[in-house]
Amino acid sequence: MSDVEEGPADTVEEVTGTGIPIRGNDIDTDQIIPARFMKVVTFDGLGEYAFFDQRFDDEDNQKNHPFNEERFQGANVLVVNSNFGCGSSREHAPQALMRWGIDAIVGESFAEIFAGNCLALGIPTLTADHESINALQQWVDDHPDEELHVDVVRETVEYGSNELNATVDKAQHKALVEGVWDTTALMEANAAATRDVAESLPYIESESLPRVESDD
Amino acid sequence: MSEGTLYDKVWDEHTVTTLPTGQTQLFVGLHLIHEVTSPQAFGMLRERDIDVAYPELTHATVDHIVPTDDRSRPFKNDAAERMMEELEENVRDAGIEFDDPTTGNQGIVHVIGPEQGITTPGKTIVCGDSHTATHGAFGAVAFGIGTSQIRDVLATQCIAMEKQKVRRIEVEGELGPGVEAKDIILEIIRRLGTDGGVGYVYEYGGEAIENLGMEGRMSICNMSIEGGARAGYVNPDETTYEWLAETDEYADDPEKFERHKEYWESIRTDETAEYDDVVTIDASDLEPVVTWGTTPGQGIGITDPIPDPEEMESGDADVARRAQEHMRVEPGETMAGYDIDVAFLGSCTNARLPDLRAAAKVVEGREVDDDVRAFVVPGSQRVKAAAEAEGLDEIFTEAGFDWRDAGCSMCLGMNDDQLQGDEACASSSNRNFIGRQGSKDGRTVLMNPRMVAAAAVTGEVTDVREMAGVTLA
């Protein structure tokens, strides 16, 4: 069976659910998931390690952290500040958040590799200005049981009686809304053109290329 | 939009097509893999019953979890052993070349590519590791990718991405004694911010960059991501070609060297190139830079006062306040005199031969402070062997350093080399994030290798330029 013929992946046009705020700029991937939890060969079970060192002390007692708070359990929209996800390229970071329950992230800005990793998992990353995000974080804090509506198509976040204008990166918008974020399948379809580029590159010796089956 | 830069040219050479998402399908000339971010990607391929498309263009090593002391198999740590076995199985099944520790070629992925000559100008290089920009020192367009993208590359030898803007960072002037490449990049990140490079590729140039050897250029490109830039590069020049001519790939094949050099020359940035942004920095003003906080952007000159959060914008001020609380430093103080418990000389930023040579000159004839545990983790087995051939290992061990095997080690604390409790570490690595070196209460002070050596012997952050009898040239 060929993935290419399976048709587009699921679209992610909107996410609805309760929110959870994580405040602070420059929250890095070592905070999102400490490296010692990455000695694994699958992503299974990473959810429990999300923000682990912020959530637990040396004796594994819970510390003050939104991910520990009863009122935020079940939340699926994470609201963050600027440069969220900076640092390592580890996909373990969005994997841990996703497996904890996060389906969408709204923030001031995201580190590039992190946002790309989120897209690969179908997690939209919407951006808005500092004031709007602060207001949204405050609202989520005050209304942990109320749902907000992240509209990827219209690039808005509706909460209470408010509507926040957010931005979804152009390629991300297209990928999620049209359901074409399975890049493996998209690019496999262009195998012949890929081969042409490989053969055109002066630094690639022909013996480094796989034999073409039709030559047999 | 930029035009005529190395990045523009390499992008065009490697473009396969435009995808329905609007992204470019970009061909990958070299895919480097290691044990931490690749196993899940191989798992995804198995789920879809897809083979590795271009196994000859992928190259594997083991660096993150590998022990640096006892490397006998099975590794003492079961999880590490399992990751190693998984990698061995994956590369065997796919027919991928693997520099395991028995080959003598093992090392940190960003050290071994350049030393073997597989990192070359004008090549697109990706790896599931954010410090992949290191390879940009050779004029490669190199960047870190996530595991789903590793799957893409294994399956198609391509990645889907949008073209970025190009910022030229012109570093003028001459470095003073004791000031190194590391100090230049820490200064760049301090000035432009940890997210200043988001959306950009950095082109480093100017007199101070051109005067650097390849190792210094690698230290600079390595930390591009700490300033938010996914990739950073230096245009290839004679320094680059001299390095390449001596590598495995080209030493015995001058004809191939000349053929490839034609391409390398062709992708250099044009004199008439246009950039999206240009930033100029004067390197002659720089002194050794050390970090006082918990992001690589929180750096200061060794004689400068730690900044006051009250004088910063609100977001930065919050980050700074938390950082100063964690590090237990006060605004107005300098970092000189800050007590150190551990000295770590290693990482993909600063564990190459000239780094070890420079540090050894500081250490020679001195002893590691009684309250400091100090160790050297060479970047690769080849670096280790070359250092031993010059007797550097003896200088370090006589002074009281541990002399270890190659790996990422305490840069990120995935093996047994970790900070304990609230230990403070003088580190030649690239990240001072809270928890980065294995302990959530650990404190990291980033600095250049000579400064690490100085801190090891004095037990505190020390201006190496002030140490008597140290040769800094």
From TrEMBL, chain A:
Chain ranges of the Aconitase A/isopropylmalate dehydratase small subunit swivel domain: 12-128
GO molecular function: 3-isopropylmalate dehydratase activity
Pathway given in the UniProt record: Amino-acid biosynthesis; L-leucine biosynthesis; L-leucine from 3-methyl-2-oxobutanoate: step 2/4
GO biological process, one term: L-leucine biosynthetic process
Keyword set includes Protein transport: no
Record InterPro entries: 3-IsopropMal_deHydase_ssu (IPR004431), Aconitase/3IPM_dehydase_swvl (IPR015928), AconitaseA/IPMdHydase_ssu_swvl (IPR000573), IPMI_Swivel (IPR033940), LeuD (IPR050075)
A cellular component annotation (GO) from this entry: 3-isopropylmalate dehydratase complex
Annotated Acidic residues bias: 1-13
Reaction catalyzed: (2R,3S)-3-isopropylmalate = (2S)-2-isopropylmalate
Region of interest: Disordered: 1-23
Classification via CDD domains: IPMI_Swivel (cd01577)
EC number: 4.2.1.33
Keyword list, A-Z: Amino-acid biosynthesis, Branched-chain amino acid biosynthesis, Leucine biosynthesis, Lyase
Function description: Catalyzes the isomerization between 2-isopropylmalate and 3-isopropylmalate, via the formation of 2-isopropylmaleate.
PANTHER family named among the record's database cross-references: 3-ISOPROPYLMALATE DEHYDRATASE SMALL SUBUNIT, 3-ISOPROPYLMALATE DEHYDRATASE SMALL SUBUNIT 2-RELATED-RELATED
UniProt-listed NCBIfam families: leuD, PRK01641.1
Quaternary structure and interacting proteins, as annotated: Heterodimer of LeuC and LeuD.
Similarity section: Belongs to the LeuD family. LeuD type 2 subfamily. Belongs to the LeuD family. LeuD type 1 subfamily.
Record protein name field: 3-isopropylmalate dehydratase
Record organism: Halarchaeum nitratireducens
Gene: leuD
From TrEMBL, chain B:
GO biological process: L-leucine biosynthetic process
Cofactor dependency: [4Fe-4S] cluster
EC number: 4.2.1.33
Matching InterPro entries: 3-IsopropMal_deHydase_lsu, Acnase/IPM_dHydase_lsu_aba_1/3, Acoase/IPM_deHydtase_lsu_aba, Aconitase_4Fe-4S_BS, Aconitase_4Fe-4S_dom, IPM_dehydratase_rel_enz, IPMI_cat
Domain Aconitase/3-isopropylmalate dehydratase large subunit alpha/beta/alpha as annotated: residue spans: 8-459
Catalytic activity: (2R,3S)-3-isopropylmalate = (2S)-2-isopropylmalate
Pathway: Amino-acid biosynthesis; L-leucine biosynthesis; L-leucine from 3-methyl-2-oxobutanoate: step 2/4
CDD domains named in the record: IPMI
Enzyme class at the top of the EC tree: lyase
Keywords, alphabetical: 4Fe-4S, Amino-acid biosynthesis, Branched-chain amino acid biosynthesis, Iron, Iron-sulfur, Leucine biosynthesis, Lyase, Metal-binding
Single GO term (MF): 3-isopropylmalate dehydratase activity
Family the entry assigns: Belongs to the aconitase/IPM isomerase family. LeuC type 1 subfamily.
Name assigned to this protein: 3-isopropylmalate dehydratase large subunit
Gene: leuC
